[in-house]
Fold this protein.
Amino acid sequence: MLVTPNQSAQSTKSLSLGQRAVGAYVGLAVGDALGATTEFLTPREIREKHGVHDRILGGGWLRLKAGQVTDDTEMSLALGESILARRGVEAAAVAEAFSEWMRGKPIDIGNTVRRGIVHYRTTGESAVAMNEFDAGNGACMRSLPIALFYCDASHEERMLASRAQSHTTHNNPLADAGTETMVEMVVSAMRGLDKSMLETMALSLVSRFPLYRFDKRRMENPSGYIVETLRAVFQAFFSNYSYQETLIDVVNRGGDADTTGAIAGMLAGAYYGEEGIPHHWRESLNTKAMLACRDQALSLLAQGRQKYTTQDR
Ligand code: MG
Ligand code: MG
C-alpha cells in the first residue's frame, strides 16, 4: 500500500459534490497551465532551469502566456459543450465539436487527435478503427466531462459514453481501460471515497493490464503513452497528501507534463476540492478559462443529475 496516514493531509470530509466538481475542472486547468512550462523537459533540465517548478509562469516550448491553458483543457471544454447541447454524448456531435475546435487553430494538438479529426472530416465517421499504436493519453486528458455529466448514471452508461468520446480519435483497449479507470476514480473521488478505495480501483486496472504497475520504478519523463502517463499520475496522487504536493511532484517529472498535470489535477481537484487548490495558482490561471471551467463543471453536474435522477435506470 502506498497510502499511509499523514497528519498534514488536507481534510476533505466536509466537501460538497459541487465543490469537488469545480475542484476537478479548475484542478485540470491549473495542472495543464502549470505543467505546460515543463513539457518535454527532463527532470534534470527542470532542476537546472527552475530548481523546483512550482509557479504558473507560461513559457515552455509553446511559449505560452502565464496562466494560458492548452489542448487538454480546451478539448475538455469542447466535449463538455457538446454534451450540454445534446444532453449526453453523441459521437457525431462530439467529433463535430472537436473538428470545430481544430478549425480555430489551437496552440497545440496531438498527432492522433489530428488524425481522428481528419478521418471524421473526410469520411463522416465519428469513430476511428482499432489501432494497436493509438494508446496515447489524448482521450483520457479530456475525459472529465464524462465523469461530471454521468456521475449519477449507471456504470454501464458512463462507460459507453467514455468509449464513444474516446473513439472519435483513439481506439485502443489499453487506452480505453486507462481512461475508463480514471473516469471511475474521478466519480468516486467526487462522491467522497477515501484514497484506499481509489487505490483499489487503480490496482484493479493493474490486475487486468499489468503494464500499469506503479509500485516499482519512479516514472520520470512520462511520455504521451497512456501507461506512462497514468503510472506517473498514480505515483504522484497516492504518495502525496495535498493538491499542491501532488501537482508539484508530477510536473517536475517532465515529459508530457501538461497532460500529467491535467489528469493528476482533475483527480486531485475532485479529491481535495476547489479550496484545496492553492489560491495563487487559481489567481494565476487565465480568467476566461477559469470561468469556463467553473461554469461548465456546475452545468454538467446539474444537467446530468437532472437527467439521471428523474428517469428509471
Ligand atoms: Mg496540452
Ligand atoms: Mg501534453
Summary: The pocket of magnesium ion (ligand 1) is lined by residues 70-72, 108, 258-259 (CB under 6 Å). Residues 52 and 91 are 41 Å apart (CA to CA).
